[in-house]
Prior knowledge:
The protein is an alpha/beta fold. The protein has one domain (3-144). Helices cover 52% and strands 12% of the residues. Strands 1-2-5 form a three-stranded parallel beta sheet, sandwiched between helices. A two-stranded antiparallel sheet has the order 3-4. The radius of gyration is 19 Å and the shape is elongated. Zinc ion (ZN) binds next to loops.
Amino acid sequence: MGKKRASHLVRQHEKVVNRRRDWFWKLAHQLTDQFDVLCFETLKLKGMQRLWGRKIGDLAFGEFIEILDWVAVKKGKLIVFIDQWYPSSKTCFHCGHVLEKLELDIREWRCPSCSSINGRDENASLNIKRVGASTLKLDGVRQVFPATVV
Ligand SMILES: [Zn+2]
């Protein structure tokens, strides 16, 4: 590969990275305008991928979180990260029963304790919200960052 071609490729890559960063800023502003408190399950990229409608890597997620943090502090919004090992999908939001396991393709399950029908994503997001809210109350901290993300 000639020098010219190599530098062309570097420029192309820079363009892609810059475009992605612009989009991170936009998304960060959009989310912080829309919500006062944002709760994330750390390192679980599934939710973010759904939100973004495309595949992203760990690195891009870390970059986005940095940008989001900066914007949130500026606007006085809160970001809470939930322990990535917290079983948000397997815990019944209604009674707290924890399933031993829940296969990935199960979208809905009936709680063996209280008979509630739980939609996988809805139940998980309710649990994340609850844990996020209680984290804020208990610790009195504005933000909780696990060392693994930042
Ligand atoms: Zn239950």
